[in-house]
Write a structure and sequence with these properties.
The chain is mostly beta strands. The protein is built from one helix and 44 strands. The strands form seven sheets. A nine-stranded parallel beta sheet has the order 5-8-11-14-17-20-23-26-29, with no helix packed on it. Strands 22-25-28-31-36-37-42-39-40 form a nine-stranded mixed beta sheet, with no helix packed on it. An eight-stranded mixed beta sheet has the order 2-1-3-6-9-12-15-18.
């Protein structure tokens, strides 16, 4: 009996020991996965190079499966084509700089997360001629403008499949900047305040097909819409100094009063249609600034909904007092003071006070029959302009029913343009009943009897 008890106790101790051994092995394996799945910088190699294995803890250059956390003040030079799963700057440290040198690259499959640096310190990622790729880049709201989270690209490329979120709530806390010919490819949108972005060099390219906001209050050098869908102005006017390229996708002015402004010297390119246009949803306009009359000669690719209805100025002569502007927006409704049978669309065109037009060739495209007024006779439509007091047929108007409607060598551009059914003017010919055709003539002198002929 005693031997049996001792034997069972010994077996129990052996099994417990085996259990603890197995648990220990599993714990070690789990701890190893955690440890070797993440990297921190320790500078053990005595250099500043990302590609030196001994600069990392554990030793070894980070791989695409490993997270990277920077836990000390340091300057790191990306001297190889580097990879990691995510990149995080710890908070409350002194200056941290990551320089992507030459044409090298840093590919972050997850997010780049900035934190709050110490006072008068900066966390910086600088891309020279190489490339940086990430899912999202989050620049945290720092404690003061003396604590700066910054990312810059010179002549290289930053590609983000999601968003760049500059969360700073004061000017100077965050800065996203292009200093040369660099490109920011953004799959989501630019978030935060306009003062956190300096984009008057290089190119910003919206690559997503999704409907996202287009950060306003910003002056872009080159702005490209390439992914399709509609990007809607948000937070302020958008100004372009270089090239606005509607490669694939629309820009909506939004439901408010925001404007898209092409500065003097800027251009707008694309194969314009209802998927590549400026959508006028509210009371905002496409505004062209120019210091020469030649700068106004262009296609103004405006529309509403899915209807592309541009204004085109093919020639313009006049005088400018300085840098002047032409603004246009189109509205999908009957023009004020027009009849319901007239065109169910109008264009509101305005000029700055220092622009005087001598002659302009202009055309407006509408969609037939979709834009034709209820019961309207499109075959009789001609361009009319409202000058603020009355409607008049546009000087140099195109023939009835022509689309696009146009006006040649007209001195009038500012006003509300639409197409109206042709109006017949009758002149008194002789005394008689108002309702009698014999009382009226089409001869302006009133001396010849000229009447309309009706056939059935």
């Amino acid at each position: 009996m005693y031997k049996t008890i001792v034997k069972k106790a010994s077996l129990f101790h052996i099994n417990v020991a085996r259990l603890f051994k197995r648990v220990g092995v599993l714990f070690f394996a789990f701890f190893s996965i955690l440890t070797y799945g993440q990297k921190t910088w320790d500078g053990g190699a005595g250099t500043n190079n990302w590609g030196d294995a001994n600069n990392w803890n554990p030793d070894g250059v980070p791989t695409a499966a490993q997270t990277v956390t920077i836990t000390q003040a340091v300057t790191i030079n990306v001297n190889v084509n580097a990879n990691c799963a995510s990149l995080t700057f710890n908070a409350n440290l002194n200056n941290i700089t990551i320089n992507i040198q030459g044409t090298n690259s840093l590919n972050v499959t997850g997010n780049i997360q900035y934190a709050n640096p110490n006072a008068n310190q900066t966390y910086l990622i600088s891309v020279d001629n190489g490339s940086l790729t990430a899912n999202n880049i989050i620049l945290s709201n720092t404690a003061a403008a003396t604590r700066v989270n910054r990312i810059t690209v010179n002549n290289g490329t930053i590609t983000v499949s999601g968003n760049i979120n500059a969360q700073g709530d004061a000017n100077g806390e965050n800065l996203v900047q292009i200093t040369g010919t660099g490109i920011i490819n953004i799959g989501g949108t630019l978030q935060g305040n306009a003062y956190s972005y300096s984009l008057n060099s290089g190119t910003v390219n919206y690559t997503s097909s999704a409907a996202v906001n287009l950060l306003g209050g910003v002056t872009y050098n080159n702005l490209t819409i390439s992914g399709g869908g509609t990007k809607t102005l948000s937070g302020g006017n958008v100004t372009v100094n270089g090239v606005l390229n509607l490669a694939n996708g629309n820009i909506s002015l939004g439901s408010g009063a925001l404007n898209l402004i092409l500065n003097s010297g800027a251009s707008i390119t694309g194969t314009f249609d209802n998927t590549r246009m400026i959508v006028c949803d509210g009371s905002g306009s496409l505004i062209r600034n120019s210091n020469s009359t030649a700068g106004f000669v262009m296609t103004y690719p405006v529309g509403t909904g899915t209807r592309y209805t541009p204004m085109i100025i093919s020639s313009l002569t006049g005088t400018l007092a300085g840098t002047e502007s032409i603004s246009v927006r189109t509205v999908a409704s009957t023009a004020p003071g027009a009849n319901s049978t007239d065109l169910n669309r109008y264009w509101n065109v305005s000029l700055s006070s220092g622009l005087t037009i001598t002659s302009v060739d202009v055309s407006f495209t509408y969609i037939n029959p979709d834009d034709v007024g209820t019961g309207g006779d499109q075959a009789t439509y001609q361009p009319y302009i409202y000058n603020g007091t009355s409607w008049q047929i546009a000087p140099g108007a195109s023939a009835q029913g022509v689309v696009p409607m146009s006006a040649s060598s007209t001195p009038v551009l500012s006003g509300i343009w639409t197409a109206r059914e042709a109006h017949t003017t009758f002149y008194s010919y002789q005394s008689g009943n108002w309702q009698s055709a014999a009382t009226w003539t089409l001869d302006p002198s009133g001396t010849l009897y000229v009447c309309l002929l009706y056939t059935s």
